[in-house]
Specification:
The chain is of the alpha+beta class. Helices cover about 35% and strands about 15% of the residues. The strands form three sheets. Strands 1-5-6-7-3 form a five-stranded mixed β-sheet. Strands 2, 4, 8 and 9 form a four-stranded antiparallel β-sheet that branches. Strand 10 and strand 11 form a beta hairpin. The radius of gyration is 21 Å and the shape is globular.
Length: about 375
């Protein structure tokens, strides 16, 4: 099997379903991944890439072993040792790990701006939420913060989606008539750094396939190879929950760690990650991602000054009002992005979600508080 084919096979597709004993099944995935890398078919087009992968096989094995050891320590109530295990791993491979971190700066071109959306379900009154209510949970209400993939109980976090569609999926496809939505936009001169776990392996494989000479470019160094190297760590953070309503979820051990110690040590503000509620394909990988930011500095302040200084927010809208609006988005010339909506593959720009994205982009953006 060639390298670009290996990255696109179903066995390593993320997010991943695992059943049974979590750490044992995860180890099976890692073992199969390593065996597949060791048995790659030589290919003149990707010879240098394969050689580099082969030279780092032991490092991938070390990363896989550390991830499994950390999970098992955590489940044995050795939580401090579990975190130290991962701390040591990231210290050893710190230079490689930094290649997973992306810096985003505000661009004057609106078309180039990264999009951030947030959706909330209406309360019984049906009133329109304030902007503050569409932001993260304030300090005084931290008792309402339950466990999420990238935040521990009691720690307020700001979860955003790259599209209205992924937000709707994260709301478990709640009736659109009961949802309210905003778009957040980075302020001028603002910047964000995030640990980027938002590329599916099929996207990485196709990227390699379409960049025959990628071993000589930043695409290989900054995007493709770091995700081959850290696949065990990324995989462990992208496992779908087996018990969706459980109080404790093994699948959250690694992701919650990644937004704690490494965040401080490596200086990133948040994490971009793949939604576990969507089936990925090469046409929608970047559209169906989420962002998680911790609300730092809430000792005396109700809201994170860091996040307030980074984002402006659109007006708050009821989703049904945007969908029923008389103005429609312009017709797109290139129907590349596709989503599976209600069981059917559709061009994204022909859906009500694209219409909401478009109308929100025309809204007035101003400070949140």
């Amino acid at each position: 099997m060639y390298l670009h084919e290996l990255l696109q096979i179903k066995d390593f597709a993320l997010p991943m379903d695992l059943h049974g004993t979590f750490s044992d099944n995860l180890k099976d995935v890692f073992d199969k991944y390593l065996l597949s890398l060791r048995n790659l078919t030589p290919c003149s087009q990707y010879l240098t890439c394969c050689q580099q992968v082969n030279q780092r096989i032991q490092d991938i094995q070390n990363i896989a072993d550390a991830v499994i050891e950390s999970i098992n320590l955590y489940l044995s109530n050795e939580i401090v040792k579990s975190k130290i295990c991962l701390d040591n791993l990231l210290f050893t491979y710190s230079a490689d790990f930094r290649n997973l971190i992306t810096l985003v700066q505000t661009n004057e071109s609106k078309s180039d701006q990264m999009k951030f959306f947030r959706v909330r379900k209406e309360d019984e009154s049906g009133r329109l939420f304030s902007k503050a209510e569409m932001f993260h949970i304030p300090r005084g209400e931290r008792h309402n913060c339950v466990t999420y993939r990238y935040s521990s109980p009691g720690i307020p976090g700001l979860y955003l989606g790259a599209s209205s569609f992924v937000c709707w999926e994260e709301m478990r496809q709640s009736p659109i008539s009961k949802l309210q939505i905003v778009e957040l936009r980075m302020k001028k001169s603002a910047s964000l750094t995030f640990l980027d776990l938002g590329y599916s392996m099929s996207f990485i494989g196709r990227l390699l396939e379409n960049n025959v000479h990628s071993h000589t470019s930043g695409t290989w160094t900054k995007i493709i190879f770091p995700r081959i190297l850290f696949f065990p760590l990324i995989c462990a953070a992208c496992i779908k929950t087996f018990y969706d309503k459980a109080s404790f979820k093994e699948e959250y051990i690694i992701p919650q760690y990644l937004l704690e110690t490494p965040k401080a040590n490596f200086g990133y503000d948040g994490i971009r990650y793949m939604s576990s509620r969507i089936d990925y394909n090469i046409y929608n990988s970047l559209l169906n991602t989420n962002f998680a930011f911790t609300a730092d500095g809430l000792v005396t302040d109700d809201y994170s000054n860091k996040l307030l200084n980074c984002f402006d927010m659109s007006d708050v809208y009821k989703c049904k009002d945007l969908i029923n609006h008389s103005r429609n988005p312009p017709t797109q010339q290139n129907h590349m992005t596709k989503i599976r909506l209600r069981g059917v593959m559709q061009h994204y720009d022909m859906t009500e979600f694209y219409k909401m994205d478009y109308l929100l982009s025309l809204s007035n953006f101003s400070k949140i508080i």
